[in-house]
Amino acid sequence: MSSQRAGRSAEQDQFAASLHDMLAAADVPGAARRWASGDSSEGLALWHKLAGAGVTALAVPERWGGLAASSLDTVVACEELGHHALPGPVAESVAVVPGLIAALAGADISPVLSDALPRLAAGDLIATLALPPWLPYAPDADVAGLVLLAETGTTGRHVLWLAEPGARHRSVDRARSLFEVSGREALARGPAVADAIAQALRAGALASAAQLLGAGRALLAASVRHAGQRIQFGRPVGAFQAVKHHLADVAIRLEFARPLLDAAAIALAAGDRFAARDVSAAKVACTEAAGRAARAALQVHGAIGYTEEHDVHLWLMKVRALAGTWGSQAEHRARIMAELTAPEAPPWS
Amino acid sequence: MSFDPGPASEFRTEVRDWLAAHLPAQPLPSVDTARGFAAHRAWERELAAVRLSVVSWPPAYGGRGASLLDWLVFEEEYYAAAAPARVGQNGLFLLAPTLFAHGTAEQRGRLLPPMARADEVWAQAWSEPDAGSDLAAIRATATRADGGWLLSGTKTWSTRAAFADRAFGLFRSDPGAERHRGLTYLLFDLRAGGVTVRPIRQLGGGIGFAEIFLDRVFVPDADVLGAPGEGWRIAMSTAGHERGLSLRSPGRFTAAAARLVELWRRAGDPADTALRDRVVDAWIGAQAYRRHTFDTAARLAGGGTLGAESSLGKVFWSELDVALHETALDLLGPLAEVDGLPGADGRWLDGYLFALAGPIYAGTNEIQRTVIAERLLGLPR
Fold it and tell me: Is position B120 annotated as part of the catalytic site?
């Protein structure tokens, strides 16, 4: 498959390749399995390594020790993290919380938040948040040193809380936990928080879309590998046309989700007025493509894919977990139509 | 860096303004009727007079030497304006790229200018009664004659052949060779002695293709494209164009998606979220195809080539085209079946019938999926 992405620079391709090499050399599936059984130490060591490569500093402004990178750089990283099914609150800690704090940084900001930024950038801190109703639970609050609750009141009351994790729920992705949270200390409130939350929703949808696309690519690759090796009726199952066409459909979906993802990142970085619409289109398309990749992967793997013994389940369950997070398909589609039919919107541009 | 050609450029404005000033007041009759064919030919001559019929060709042949991105801009404006179907499409998008790649200077100088002006409209002559998806099963023959070749056999599903002037196709020139070997790419006159054209009425009522019977039809050596026996390789380079960038620019789909959103705004039931989601998905698909095409254009401009990945696009656009039009017809409800609805609504039914052929021609989508699986994914043959 052609992997060249026209909207990406050579440096971004190089960054993606270096993250891929780093994670491929590590035993990420093993780390995810041990994370699922309660030992997150290996996974957190990987987060430290990624911080060394700059991943956790991408969305942090320079004055707090970050790289102030573009949305596309963050997408490049999140796609690779999804490609390797890295456990932990990827979208939340890498993209959303740094952006949320940075958006508030012009105001008189709480030291809890400003002190967090350099530590996030350096990889000394992992952050997560709940943002009901889109994100009712804070993912992986057990490994996070900073847990936030962004509250969007129906009367326009927007508050950013330092939050206390409460009851824990297991995700269908066993290497992911969901925590109920309650506000402990109000860190910021008012219109600036409303704007920051709107931006956080876009950043979260984009980052999770990137993870989903990466996971979808991994599932397709795993399916192709398995179909080439598994022999039935005296030939590799991948020689059967029914299997070929399943996987060709997955390849098509992934191929045409990619440009939407990159274009949305570019639009977001440029402050394009249609950026929110483009982010929703990317999330819908990447979720759809990854979902198809997951279903096809399970079908092509057969019974072994339905087990915890085989690694493919790590990606299958992560796709299911991320599919509904940071806005459901229905919400994103409704948002797109609302923007398309808004009086001033040209329907194509 | 973004490769979006953007909403504003001098060239875009010129195309938009010219089309606004010159578009026929009434839609032309269907291109698949004798009257409509003539009207579309006249329209092509208007385009050619201002060098808008083949913008990406070199000036010597009637073009402007425009970049691939400007060609995409032209296409966006052309479809957004709902301008007439391109009667010369087979020649412009299938034969011309092959002439540029494999033709001689003499052939290009002789064949391209009349093609640009639609003085010569070309039909394709690939399929035969027993060679459809399995194109290498071609049986029509080219037999050596003094100064050229004699063509015999039957070609079918030949788009535009009922009214076109000339055709291009593959013929078996080496009776001892099998399958992909021993084929020659030949150009012939549809009004030459020994040619009989049987128009075929399509399911929508138009005469969009024909069967061609050839009985010892003489073709001079000058009308062999590439070397004799090399026809398969040469035709496949054309097939890449047919499936890929050249034949289906995103303009058609983005324009249809814009009209679909308009139709929803006007006629959609806000409570029908299932239909609303289909409208949104069709719009997303058109955007995806547009973005993907810009990426491909940028890659080609940077010296890249287009190979088997064109199969990804062919399946995508052909199924998108059906979905766009089916969704519109479902929105129109009981009016959808009415032939000749007034205004913009009247175009959905014709567009739907046209779209239905997409997953079949230019290599069925089943063939494309197999190509994707074997050549791009590397699954075993």
Answer: no
Put simply, the answer to whether B373 touches A245 (Cβ < 8 Å) is yes
**Binary contact (B299, A227; C-beta < 8 A):** no
- Residue range B114-131: mean pLDDT, rounded: 96
- Kindly provide the ipTM of the predicted complex, given to two decimals: 0.95
* Inter-residue contact B100 to B116 (CB < 8 Å): no
- Looking at the domain A196-340, which fold is it? Butyryl-CoA Dehydrogenase, subunit A; domain 3 (1.20.140)
How many Å lie between the alpha carbon of B171 and the closest alpha carbon of chain A? Answer: 30
A with B: how many residue pairs have Cβ under 8 Å apart? 139
Report CB contact under 8 Å: A340, B291. Answer: no
List domains and CATH numbers for chain B.
Answer: 10-87 (no CATH), 122-232 (2.40.110.10), 244-376 (1.20.140.10)
With 80 as the cut, is the pLDDT of residue A154 above it?
A: no
Q: Nearest to residue B273, comparing CAs of A278, A284, A329? A: A329
Q: Taking residues A109-125, report their average pLDDT.
A: 95
SS3 B48: helix
What are the residue boundaries of the structural domains of chain A, listed by start? 196-340
CA dihedral A323, A327, A330, A331 (to 10 degrees): -170
Q: Any chain B CB within 8 A of the CB of A220?
A: yes
State the Cα–Cα distance between residues B270 and A147, nearest whole angstrom.
Answer: 39
pLDDT of residue B41 exceeding 50, the answer is: yes
Cβ neighbours of A2 in B, within 8 Å: 299, 309
State both tokens at B285.
């698909």
Which is the catalytic residue, given B211, B242, B309, B374?
Answer: B242
- Average pLDDT of chain A is 94
CA separation for the pair A315, A311 (Å, rounded): 8
pLDDT attached to residue A347: 44
CA atoms within 13 A on the CB side of B2: 20
d(CA B230, CA B186): 11
Place of tokens 């303009």: B251
